[in-house]
Amino acid sequence: MRAFLFCACALLVSAAPARADQTDPRLDALFEELRSGDALSAEETVGRILEIWADSQSDTVDILYMRALESLDAGRFELAEALLDHVVGLAPSFAQGYALRGAVRLSLEEQAGAVADFSRALELEPRQFEVRIALAEILLGNGEKRDAYEMFQKALEWNPHDEHARRRARSLRRELEGQEI
């Protein structure tokens, strides 16, 4: 689980700001490309999606967000969380702020706060496949295999190329085989 949390944080922080947000019309085309494209271009497409998601449309929020990323990279989780508190306070419609704060809270072992942030991120951007994977891992860690399987499946609807989600869903499907899913 610890290794997954590190990977989840890495995915959520890998994007540099671009000039859009989760409402950017380019996202529809990128998701279509991701869902119908090949695995070779999937990584590039995911990167472009993450770049769009990482822009809050506010210079102030972007600076705070980047400082939170730097703090997270330096292992200063409490500072990253405090900065992200300001990010979501200033930009309550910025889904990536909640997604990153959720990842930070997972690192701080604040599961309830992480789930609340991830849920808010999904309300704002239902296509947030990394958030769905993180929630699936939390569900799995809590022994909720059916719900975890369903969450992995929802993540794969948006990014069918995510190997981690595919492996986990396949494993859970085998475990749950013969049981009502």
Automatic annotation (TrEMBL):
<feature type="signal peptide">
    <location>
        <begin position="1"/>
        <end position="20"/>
    </location>
</feature>
<protein>
    <submittedName>
        <fullName>Tetratricopeptide repeat-containing protein</fullName>
    </submittedName>
</protein>
<keyword id="KW-0802">TPR repeat</keyword>
<dbReference type="InterPro" id="IPR050498">
    <property type="entry name" value="Ycf3"/>
</dbReference>
<feature type="repeat" description="TPR">
    <location>
        <begin position="129"/>
        <end position="162"/>
    </location>
</feature>
<dbReference type="Pfam" id="PF14559">
    <property type="entry name" value="TPR_19"/>
</dbReference>
<feature type="repeat" description="TPR">
    <location>
        <begin position="95"/>
        <end position="128"/>
    </location>
</feature>
<dbReference type="InterPro" id="IPR019734">
    <property type="entry name" value="TPR_rpt"/>
</dbReference>
<keyword id="KW-0677">Repeat</keyword>
<keyword id="KW-0732">Signal</keyword>
<dbReference type="InterPro" id="IPR011990">
    <property type="entry name" value="TPR-like_helical_dom_sf"/>
</dbReference>
